[in-house]
Design goal:
The protein is an alpha+beta fold. It has 2 domains: 330 residues, Rossmann fold (3-Layer(aba) Sandwich); 84 residues, no CATH class. The chain is 34% helix and 24% strand. The chain contains 15 helices and 19 strands. Helix 8 links the parallel strand 5 and strand 6. The longest helix has 18 residues.
């Protein structure tokens, strides 16, 4: 009898292991170590931010995700691809930028045929929170010989993240010292992940860099630089979802980016290259990739790992409606599952709005599941996997658990969860 694969073992563990792996006391200690007195703000006010358990993923699937990411990075580097996406990139994103941009997020669903890329984001949140969460786990299932992916060569994610910001700075400013960072978002204290902003502020300060959290309206362009109050800002950690920096309230940041008054990351160019959903149309079009001279191995990885995606056009309305149950509709410039619709649940009225908007239709790939005991009852939670990537390198992988049509942090038992890679030698 053949031995089960690592993917099969991981699936069995996800279905059968209801262990509580999160040590809340250790989590409190980790968060309080970063910022004394901060635990209540992080956890008590966000009860569904952290799941009490973890998610198992076969080591082969972890490697396949990395392979698909590397294949996409190879395509993104080609002149043909960059010229192609320029057709819909806003003017501010047309010019090249010296740095790749921090926290590119590659989100996958696990399909029986292997991981499937659902979308790419350029301001993927949760990286630092998940690094802390990973350290707050306790022993679970002795038979599961698992390792946490993303801690490369024994390196801690926090160190990788800090080096990433320094690399962004040096790519734009060379050997000049990085002395100040502004963490910028609209009304930052009202953001769900505001605690992560504070954690980043502490991380930067521990490395001798002054850090402020501010609204973009607090930024001023004067004295040949970008300022917040009396602090000149060297680098902006941009958490805005206005990817083209087009809103009037973002005018100072937009000008600072265009004039290079400060280093901005992630930036409009990164969003145009990676996160516009229309890019998935090209990445899933084998004939188009072949015409650009993309090699057969890269194309095979993309064919296996990127669901077929197409532009939504009114001329194809009847065909799209007929096939809707096998499609997922997403706005081209969307983020955070906003205004996204499963085709099997879409109404005629909403479909008309989709046709009138700027949407793509992606082949539906249902998420895998994690069975957990929630309030004393076994509950099926959906799973997606986020790869935090910089310059093509996976720094950390985390899972999100939820119920409903799209990812959220409103599900009891759900939230962020660590990912443990399972080898084929584990007995489930």
């Amino acid at each position: 009898m053949s031995l089960p694969t690592c993917t099969q073992i991981a699936a069995r563990l996800n279905a059968g292991c209801q262990c509580v792996s999160l040590d809340r006391g250790r989590l409190r200690a980790e968060i309080e170590h970063e910022t004394p007195g901060f635990y209540a703000a992080v956890v008590d006010e966000r009860p569904h931010l952290f799941s009490d358990s973890l998610v198992y993923v076969g080591a082969r699937d972890v490697q396949r995700m990395a392979d698909v990411i590397a294949a996409i990075e190879r395509v993104v580097a080609t002149p043909a691809y960059r010229a192609h996406v320029a057709a819909w990139a806003p003017k501010i994103a047309q010019a090249e930028y010296p740095s790749p941009g921090v926290f590119i997020g590659y989100d996958f669903h696990l399909d029986p045929g292997g991981p499937q890329l659902i979308e790419i984001n350029t301001n993927a949140g949760g990286g630092l929170i998940n690094a802390i969460l990973a350290r707050a786990q306790q022993a679970c299932c002795d038979e599961a010989e698992a390792v946490l992916p993303g801690i490369l060569g024994g390196d801690r994610p926090e160190h990788l993240f800090m080096e990433m910001f320094r690399a962004e700075w040096s790519a734009c400013r060379g050997a000049a010292p990085l002395t100040s960072i502004a963490i910028v978002d609209d009304d930052p204290q009202a953001q769900y992940l505001h605690p992560e902003f504070v954690l980043f502020q502490r991380l930067f300060e521990r490395h001798g860099i002054k850090a402020v959290i501010c609204d973009p309206v607090d930024l001023m362009l004067c004295h040949n630089g970008l300022w917040v109050g009396e602090t000149r800002i060297d680098l902006v950690y941009n958490r805005l979802t206005d990817f083209a920096l087009a809103a009037p309230a973002h005018a100072a940041l937009r000008r600072a980016y265009v004039d290079a008054s400060a280093v901005v990351t992630p930036h409009p160019r990164a969003h145009a290259l990676y996160a516009d959903k229309r890019n998935l149309v090209a990445l899933s079009d084998d004939a188009l990739l072949a015409s650009w001279g993309v090699d057969a191995e890269t194309r095979a990885l993309l064919a296996a790992g990127v669901p077929r995606t197409e532009l939504v056009a009114p001329a194809h309305a009847d065909d799209l409606w007929a096939r809707r149950k096998g499609l997922f509709f997403k706005p081209a410039a969307g983020y955070g599952s906003k205004a996204t619709y499963r085709g099997d649940k879409i109404t005629k009225r909403v479909f008309a709005e989709v046709l009138a908007g700027d949407y793509i239709a992606q082949a539906l790939v249902p998420p895998s599941s994690r069975r957990l005991a929630v309030a004393g009852e076994l509950t099926e939670l959906k799973v997606d996997l986020r790869n935090y990537v910089y310059a093509g390198r996976v720094q950390l992988i985390a899972a999100r658990l939820w119920q409903g049509q799209t990812t959220n942090f409103r599900t009891p038992g759900g939230g962020f969860a660590p990912v443990l890679a399972v080898s084929s030698q584990v007995t489930a």
